[in-house]
Design brief:
Radius of gyration: 29 Å
Strand content: under 5%
Pfam family, one: TrbL_2
Number of helices: 11
Helix content: over 70%
Distance between the termini: 76 Å
Order of helices and strands: HHHHHHHHHHH
Low-confidence stretches: none
Keywords: Membrane, Transmembrane, Transmembrane helix
Protein name: TrbL/VirB6 plasmid conjugal transfer protein
Oligomer: single chain
């Protein structure tokens, strides 16, 4: 009778062990895949991330926004000329160099407006270069083989686990697996949200560019440029977060308890998502973009 009970117990334990091992094998696959592709995603410029969207945004900008920017720059230049005349005591202190300065400023304003897209792409090219250099510095650390470490720990402790502990561990792995899938979706939302925000910024680029040369209105263009640089360098801060995450998760390999290792990795992944959410506001605060 005791032999039958032992066989039933062994059978149940084998089923539970297979269940736990299967959960461990699939638990971090989504997050691993997403974290491993972050470097490639954030290093792309608007033109290379999705050429179809970029082409549409550029067409909208040229056909809809540029005419509005043309009206704005006309108003700004006229306002600039009136201001120059008034500043010279209503032309009582007339100086012919005034019109040369106005013509020079107008030429610069028109040139900036005509080269707006080139300037915007140059900003993101610099940001892409910074991210690529950061990615090469932490190469090999962004894709994390957490399953192998946890599976090895489980195999080492498997003989000492009873049915109750295996059931508890199975429930833990199910909950953490669900959390990891949610974290993977959140990482996707962060990466795609950043690119959509970039495309929105790029679409209206000619309007703030039309105000740059004026003293009073120039703050619009200056703030826009700061926001553009902040978005470009947000990719660098994302790479720093991923590098920190890789170092934290690497410590799981030396953990002695499987339960604490599981929850530690889950906590680190939650911290990663929270940090990624904060990179946008951090970058804007550093570059004083508002």
């Amino acid at each position: 009778m005791g032999g039958i009970i032992d066989k039933i117990t062994d059978f149940i334990k084998e089923m539970l062990q297979g269940w736990v091992l299967n959960n461990l094998d699939t638990m971090f696959s989504d997050v691993n895949d997403k974290v491993g592709t972050i470097a490639g995603e954030v290093s792309k410029t608007p033109s290379t991330w999705n050429s179809g969207i970029f082409s549409m945004i550029r067409t909208l900008s040229e056909n809809v926004v540029v005419p509005i920017a043309g009206m704005i720059i006309s108003f700004v230049l006229i306002y600039e000329l009136i201001t120059m005349v008034i500043d010279k005591n209503n032309m009582h202190d007339f100086d012919t160099s005034l019109f040369f300065r106005f013509l020079f400023k107008a030429c610069i304003a028109v040139m900036l407006l005509s080269k707006t897209f080139d300037i915007v792409m140059a900003v993101f090219d610099v940001g892409s270069h910074v991210v690529t250099q950061a990615a090469s510095s932490i190469s090999g650390s962004t894709s994390l083989d957490v399953q192998a470490t946890l599976t090895t720990m489980f195999n080492n402790q498997i003989d000492t686990m009873g049915i109750g502990e295996l059931i508890g561990l199975g429930m833990e792995t199910m909950v953490i697996s669900l959390c990891m899938k949610i974290m993977s979706v959140l990482i996707t939302v962060i990466l795609y949200g950043r690119m959509i925000e970039i495309y929105l910024y790029v679409s209206v680029a000619p309007i703030p560019a039309a105000t740059v040369t004026n003293r009073e209105w120039g703050t619009i263009g200056t703030n826009y440029l700061k926001g553009l640089v902040a978005l470009a360098f947000q990719g660098f801060f994302i790479m720093v977060c991923v590098a920190i995450y890789a170092v934290l998760v690497a410590s799981v390999a030396v953990a002695g308890n499987l339960h604490s290792a599981l929850w530690s990795v889950a906590a680190y992944t939650v911290i990663l998502c929270f940090s990624l959410f904060k990179t946008g506001s951090l970058s804007k605060s550093i570059f004083n973009a508002h």
